[in-house]
Amino acid sequence: MFFKHRKTDRMRFGKLLLLTLALTLPIAAILPSPAARAATDTFEERAEQLLSVFASTTPTNMNNHWFFYAQARFATNTNVSTALSWVDSLNNGSHPGSMFYYVNNIETYLKFGHLYSGALKAKVKTDLTTGANVTYYTSNGSTENHKLMFKTAGYLVAQTWPDWSNASVELAGNKSELEAIMDQYVHKGLAEYDSPSYNAVTVNCLMLLAEFVQDPAFRMKAKMTLEWMLANIGAEWTNGYYVSSTLRVYPVSVTPQEGAASTIQNWLLWGGRTPSYPTSLSDHATEAHYAVSNATSTYRMPAILERIGQDRSVPYVQKENGNWNTRTSKYSYITDKFGLASQVEVQNLAWADQARRWFARWDSEEPGSTFFMTHPRLAGDYKGATIYEQVMQHNGALIGVYKIPTSGTIDGTNPILQYIEGPISTEAAKQIAEHSGWVFIHGGGTMLAVKPVKGYTWAADRTINSQTFKTLRSEYNKNGVVLEVVPASDYALAGEASLPEEDRLANELSSFKDDILANTAIDASHLDETNPRLIYTTLSGDQMDITYQYTGVYNNNRKLNGQAVAYGSWPLMDSPYMHQDYNGNTLTLNHGGESYAYDFGNWTVTSVNAPLIRWKFDEVSGVAASDSSGNGLSGSLLNGLSFGSNAVAGPVGGGALQFDGMDDVVRRDTASVSGYPFTLSAWVKTTSSANSTIQFLGNGTAFDQYVRIGMNSVGKAFLDLRNGSSTTIFSSGPVNNGQWHLITGVFENATSSKLYVDGVLQAALTNAVALPALNRMSAGALDRSVPSDRFAGAIDDVKLYTSALNASQIMALYNGN
């Protein structure tokens, strides 16, 4: 069996076979190769996979991260006694890692304290209260994430033990501090923005508060701040890769094969190319353990945020202008194959030794699929950026200029280096060609063309994290760089799929080279002026123009097609899926016909055409269908129906439920729908010819008061409205052909209802029946006082909207949006 997160929570993690394998096989044997599960897995499956790995691993050095390994064992019922001994050993008064220790300790207690003995509970209480010597007014740490951890732990400790003498003071003080932090985040952004390490810490703290804060208004603030953060991250995630300029970055390349806290956390939340966990999970520096916190959480993001992080059907630009202490304008071009990201410091460059100003990152089976050039701060070290480089970006094109002093030190000790350079992975770069000062790189699904404008040399290869990188170097004080990144499919030739891979890649790279040489133009005539200037005409015909200027405040020195780019007036966040003005109160989210408005002035969320209930049926175990709408209206699987025994593949999200036509039903008793309008919608797959109900909404204690969508004995879909008398309409053709079909019933008002199949209107009726009481929603049965009309077949993605979807919105549902 599996332990529940808390005594009242549903069990979510479950295939005992997988966990048995996790305990008997080497870690590498139970992990799929990268991308093996990218298209079809669900959050629950990814969580189960991650927990099984950590539950079967023993860390080697006692530290605060041991709490995550203990959580994995608790969640999977794996050697629980050992995990309890770890918790006992950690609560010894030494507080390793301080703020990390406090927040990890209280989190583990809140989630799994019901497994602790009375003595261990008392020991944890002492260690986190009187033994901690932590106060809200003295414990801040030295960074933004330190402060958030201290305040999160302090608040939850005070809430958990109200009999502690300092509880009331600490509760109020930490709440005030946390509210100020949240207000800053959602209006002006983070200081440690988009960090591959510390984003994970921020998300974990906010998720912990959203799950466990008891004060409803404060919990709402935590939840909204968390979802602001997830919107910000999800928009820059593409199929396993995080694409954003950043502060607080350490690795040269952060790809699924290399792992990083945020890479693995984001994969857990949105999926994509499956990460290869670092070789030594016992080494806490790998940071993979932070995602365990999300895997053991009961929080689930709204479906619209999940889709925003997954839909890469059309390339788009995400612009940001925040980061409260530096005012940095960020630009990320996101596609399904690659991303290109950069930033412009509108005011100043903070944390220069941990910044990554720009890079291209692409989908690859190999590690190291990241390219950038930079003015290194230290020889042999690519970490950080300097003020002697400036860049601008437009879609997949980027240009930069450099003005490097001929003498001086970078930090008071180390000399200013007299060159720019960039690493090229010998694994991720499948082919490299050189022509006319350009270097052309074929990365598999993506190609790059880079030109250090004044010329380049190849410095000695470098080994970084056991990978070999070629070193592209250009040794000029005043210099420029040009980069174009394109999908390789743009240059695929008819019939070349049958060629050997080496020949196919060479042909594509040659076509790309010819296009660059014929259809781009570089004007470097101003590079040697006092402030170097570079003008570039891109493959798309746009003219990019940048002049070096670094006085600390942006002064319109970048132009696109002759117009100055007004970075300072950019919104806090903007893409086709979201918008919020800098220091504005309202974040709007839009996707698939749904819209949400997050009001950070009043701390409320309103939705337009968002479902009240959504059962995706993607769980892998248990008897509860979670509600991904964010409203917490889960459904109960009854009469032996379970995800462990009845889960099948579905058309949306990966999972679906198989109903036996005998007594299976999923039920939720709710009085949330008080009248028109509303919409019922579900995917079905069946070959049955029995009269059956797909989705029921009605009076569960009466016999003949309900509305429903279903299928009749000749396989036609129907919409039915009954309240003593009845009225029914049918589809034009059958839906029991063993294929998936989307059945949608729209109840617009007292005089109009419509039936759709696969997004197409089938029939409309003028309602002649008064609307009955609606206090129960069910899937798979006419779930009235005497249930009947059981459905035999598979059902997926059951939704209830408190609005009347229109034809285009229903077609969007059918098309997967």
Enter the CATH topology name of the largest domain. Glycosyltransferase
Gyration radius over CA: 28 Å
CATH class of the largest domain: Mainly Alpha
Shape: globular
> What are the low-pLDDT stretches, counting only 5+ consecutive residues below 50?
1-39
CATH architecture heading of the largest domain: Alpha/alpha barrel
- Strand percent estimate: 25-35%
Q: What's the number of domains?
A: 3
- Major pleated sheet: 10 strands, antiparallel
Structural class label? alpha+beta
Strand order of the largest sheet: 9-8-6-5-4-24-25-26-27-28
Mean pLDDT: 90
Organism: Paenibacillus beijingensis
Pfam families: Laminin_G_3
Signal peptide: 1-38
Domain Laminin G: 655-817
Explain what this protein looks like in three dimensions:
With 817 residues, this protein is of the alpha+beta class. It has three domains: 16-308, Glycosyltransferase; 316-576; 611-814, Jelly Rolls, CATH 2.60.120.200. The strands form eight sheets. A ten-stranded antiparallel β-sheet has the order 9-8-6-5-4-24-25-26-27-28. Helix 4 packs antiparallel against helix 5 (80-90) and helix 10 (198-212) runs antiparallel to helix 11. The two termini are 36 Å apart. It is built from 17 helices and 44 strands. Keywords: Disulfide bond, Signal. Residues 655-817 form the Laminin G domain. InterPro entries: ConA-like_dom_sf, LamG-like, Laminin_G. Residues 1-38 form the signal peptide.
